[in-house]
Specification:
Largest sheet: 8 strands, mixed
CATH architecture: 3-Layer(aba) Sandwich
CATH topology: Aminopeptidase
CATH superfamily: Gcn5-related N-acetyltransferase (GNAT)
Helix content: 25-40%
Number of strands: 8
Shape: globular
Distance between the termini: 38 Å
């Protein structure tokens, strides 16, 4: 049975989650794992261990912001992919946080085959790809502040670009700006 249990910085299996994080996401989409785990008493987000019968199989980070729930990261151990764990976990997450607009970031469809597959997978769960790109702040290969083109998917149709841009503003103000302000500490 799949469960989500909050991860604390000193949690058992923290090395597994760190390795999974580094393996599952491109460097330019990752922040310092320690920065994510530290949390600084920020009650807006939680990192969750994904367990199957108490065996760690993945992790996710979910932000509870203003009028949105933002699933920042979701990863299943690559040795276990293809066994429907991801589908079961995403269904559980969507049911758990469906009280508000749900937002997930994805690479643009045209980027590569993996991006296409990921978007199509999320669509099977009813998520809708927004029409607009935006620049997500990140660190480049030299740990300098940069940006990459991203898109968002939501559980509700966005009515216009203004609604899209308001979501991006929330993400920037609540997540990216504080991280950028702290970045020198974590390099």
């Amino acid at each position: 049975m799949i469960k989500l249990i909050e991860i604390k910085h000193n949690s058992e299996n923290i090395d597994f989650y760190k390795q999974l994080y580094n393996d599952a996401f491109p460097k330019e989409e990752r922040w310092s794992f320690d920065m994510i785990m530290e949390n600084k008493d920020n009650n807006n987000y939680k990192s969750y261990s994904i367990l199957d019968e108490n065996i760690p199989i993945g992790f996710t980070v979910i932000w509870h912001l203003d009028n949105i729930n933002y699933v920042e990261y979701l990863a299943i151990d690559k040795k276990l992919r293809g066994r429907k764990y991801g589908s079961e976990v995403l269904t559980k997450i969507l049911n758990m946080i469906n009280n508000k607009l749900i937002v997930i970031e994805v690479e643009p469809y045209e980027l590569n085959e993996t991006a296409k597959k990921r978007i199509e997978w999320y669509k099977r769960f009813g998520l809708i790809l927004a029409d607009y790109d935006y620049d997500m702040p990140c660190l480049d290969k030299n740990n300098k502040i940069s940006s990459i083109k991203m898109k968002i998917m939501t559980n509700r149709n966005l009515e216009n670009k203004e609604q899209h841009d308001n979501i991006i503003k929330i993400l920037y103000d609540k997540i990216y700006k504080p991280r950028l302000d702290e970045i020198d500490k974590w390099k």
